[in-house]
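S1.2 Input.
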Amino acid sequence: MATYVVLSQFTDQGIRTIKNSPQRASQVVEQAKSFGCEMKEIYWTLGQYDIVSIVEAPNDESLTAFGLALGSAGNIRTQTLRAFNNADFAAIIGKLS
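S1.3 Output.
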């Protein structure tokens, strides 16, 4: 499974209904499963991003479909970063000449 860091910002709609955010997060955890993804962690944060999530997915396509479904609800806008752990990155570096 690939790991992704998803940075989210509330939309106007999302901030107007902020009291529902914990409940929506639980629903998103279940929704992720329908795309073959797993929400490993969800953090509400201070600063430029309102939520930071760690998601595992079998491939980019599954994560993208999940992200599109999530965005279409209208509560958040996201930026997604592909993340590599130490072993994965060492294997990538090992391919350099």
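S1.4 Remarks. The radius of gyration is 15 Å.
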